[in-house]
């Protein structure tokens, strides 16, 4: 009888240990799936941005402080989530790798939402809407009068942007830059080192206004591809995504997005879809 009792006791203890291990595994799996718990525990939101993309992410000339439309959106978002935000500055290619590896929690740099990107990353609801434009030389429009005239032109930009995809799709020669400031892009078009910069209309409008003596302008007739931009988040961080989307909805409802947009985009409200005639709709990945 004693032997039987000891056997039953060992069996019960084994079941308890196994149950405990099973619970630990479930708890570990839950924690693994919900990486946003670490953000809450540490109280820090790590965000990748360029610091060179005026007026959405740049350094104020007087204070050297990192600011801009998207930077301030993230700062306000973090404040409402009771988090401190740490920005890490890098090029656009590095941002995707940093999000994927967990080096940062999200990327904020006027990143357009595309179907292929949505397969690899989660995006917040859009906080900016726009469409494509191109910077050309002021005197001759760089010889570009229709999209097909991009063939053979030297197109400046980042290697993996949708705008470089579009220009290469029309036969332009890519001239790749890595996280340089807008004045460098514009200066090189003006002096003939390159011919054109394809990019977001609102960003380019502000860049041209900021550097009026470089001999460039936005092409007056060619507008293409309506776009929407969101914050990039690693797939699986669903709690973080939900909190970000809920907070962005609050900021839209109370007018914060509109207020920040008008501050950085010369009175324009980029938080709503623009009403503009699109001359080309080019499919990109």
UniProtKB/TrEMBL annotation:
Keyword Signal part of the UniProt annotation: yes
UniProt KW keywords: Signal
Subcellular location: Cell envelope
Signal among keywords: yes
SMART domains in alphabetical order: PBPb
A GO CC annotation given for this chain: cell envelope
Signal sequence coordinates: 1-19
Residue ranges constituting the Solute-binding protein family 3/N-terminal domain according to the UniProt record: 44-268
Alphabetical list of InterPro entries matching this protein: SBP_3_CS (IPR018313), Solute-binding_3/MltF_N (IPR001638)
PANTHER family tied to this protein: ABC TRANSPORTER EXTRACELLULAR-BINDING PROTEIN YCKB-RELATED, MEMBRANE-BOUND LYTIC MUREIN TRANSGLYCOSYLASE F
Homology family: Belongs to the bacterial solute-binding protein 3 family.
Annotated protein name in UniProt: Amino acid ABC transporter substrate-binding protein, PAAT family
């Amino acid at each position: 009888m004693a032997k039987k009792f000891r056997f039953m006791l060992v069996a019960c203890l084994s079941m308890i240990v196994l149950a405990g291990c099973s619970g630990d595994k479930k708890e570990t799996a839950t924690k693994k799936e919900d990486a946003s718990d670490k953000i809450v525990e540490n109280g820090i939101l790590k965000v990748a941005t360029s610091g060179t993309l005026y007026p959405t992410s740049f350094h104020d000339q007087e204070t050297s402080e990192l600011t801009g439309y998207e930077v301030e959106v993230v700062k306000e978002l973090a404040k409402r989530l009771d988090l401190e935000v740490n920005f890490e500055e890098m090029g656009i290619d590095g941002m995707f790798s940093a999000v994927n590896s967990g080096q940062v929690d999200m990327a904020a740099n006027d990143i357009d939402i595309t179907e292929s990107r949505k397969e690899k990353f989660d995006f917040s609801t859009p906080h900016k809407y726009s469409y494509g434009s191109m910077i050309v030389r002021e005197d001759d429009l760089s010889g570009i009068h229709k999209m097909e005239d991009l063939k053979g032109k030297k197109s400046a930009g980042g290697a993996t942007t949708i705008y470089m995809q579009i220009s290469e799709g029309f036969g332009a020669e890519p001239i790749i830059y890595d996280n340089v400031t807008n004045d460098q892009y514009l200066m090189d078009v003006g002096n003939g080192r390159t011919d054109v910069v394809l990019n977001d209309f609102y960003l380019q409008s502000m860049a041209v206004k900021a550097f009026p003596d470089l001999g460039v302008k936005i092409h007056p007739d060619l507008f293409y591809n309506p776009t929407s931009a969101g914050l990039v988040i690693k797939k699986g961080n669903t709690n973080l995504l939900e909190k970000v989307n809920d907070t962005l909805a609050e900021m839209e409802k109370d007018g914060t997005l509109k207020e920040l947009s008008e501050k950085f985009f010369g009175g324009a409200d980029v938080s709503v879809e623009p009403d503009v005639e699109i001359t080309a709709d080019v499919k990109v990945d």
